[in-house]
Specification:
Layout lengths: L2 H8 L4 H8 L3 H10 L9 H6 L34 H12 L1
């Protein structure tokens, strides 16, 4: 999706819903937003909207990235915090050096 599409998506529904929709983790969505300077809703944003309270939605800042920039969010391989077979060999090489 484009940077502008991700911005619209992030401000239209909670990241947990976005993550579920695309089969990724909400942290991956947050990391993509941070990497491409897309402002994210602050904590409590969706609750305030639900109760009809005013919320501020900042404009997409296009100083460093174009709105047409393509963003690909891919899930990390394996599970976070889990041992991966290649990790042992890499760690062993670092210790030997």
């Amino acid at each position: 999706m484009t940077r502008a599409e991700l911005y619209d998506l992030v401000w239209s529904k909670p990241m947990t819903e976005i993550a579920r929709q695309y089969g990724i983790r909400d942290q991956h969505v947050a990391q993509a937003c941070d990497a491409y300077e897309i402002a994210r809703p602050r904590a409590g944003h969706w609750q305030r909207m639900e109760h009809g309270k005013p919320v501020e939605t900042p404009a997409l800042d296009n100083k460093n990235h174009s709105p047409e920039t393509i963003i690909v969010i891919e899930p990390a391989l394996g599970k976070p915090g889990r041992f991966h077979p290649g990790d042992y060999h890499d760690a062993a090489k670092r210790r030997a050096a």
